[in-house]
Design a protein that fits this description.
By secondary structure, the protein is mainly beta. It starts with a strand and ends in a 9-residue tail after the last strand. The strands form 2 sheets. It has a 5-stranded antiparallel sheet, with no helix packed on it. A 4-stranded antiparallel sheet has the order 1-2-3-4, with no helix packed on it. The protein has one domain. The protein has 1 helix and 9 strands.
Length: 121
């Protein structure tokens, strides 16, 4: 992974990564030639536009198993529930418009694309 701007990272396979403030994590899109789904990219690393929308979905587990509690969970596994999540957005001129089907707190809002990993992790 290499920085191409404060907003974007370049990763293998012709993919660009940006920080999602709704998920507090990174999302990737494929641009240019290559295998898998591809997005149009305006070529502006400081104010990117990707088309079409970016849809990320999956599930997490609650309560989570973390590195800090892994040994305890292995000794005495606790009940967990599967929690589905959706992050669906349009990224236009360096702003993220979160659509209403997002399951995070920024659903329905438009915010500036933050610098990559604003917490410095």
């Amino acid at each position: 992974m290499s920085a191409i701007s404060r907003k974007l990272r370049s990763v293998e396979g012709g993919r660009l990564m940006f920080w999602c403030p709704g998920c507090d994590g990174a999302h990737q899109v494929g641009v240019g030639d290559g295998p898998g789904p591809r997005w149009e990219y305006n070529g502006n690393p400081e104010a990117p536009t990707f088309k079409p929308s970016v849809l990320v979905s999956g599930a997490t587990w609650d309560p989570p198993v973390t590195p800090e509690n892994m040994d305890q969970w292995r000794r005495e596994p606790w009940q967990q529930r599967r929690v589905p999540f959706v992050c669906h957005s349009f990224i236009t001129d360096g702003r993220i418009e979160f659509l209403g089907d997002c399951t995070h707190a920024l659903a329905g809002q438009t915010v500036d694309l933050p610098d990559f990993d604003p917490e410095g992790r």
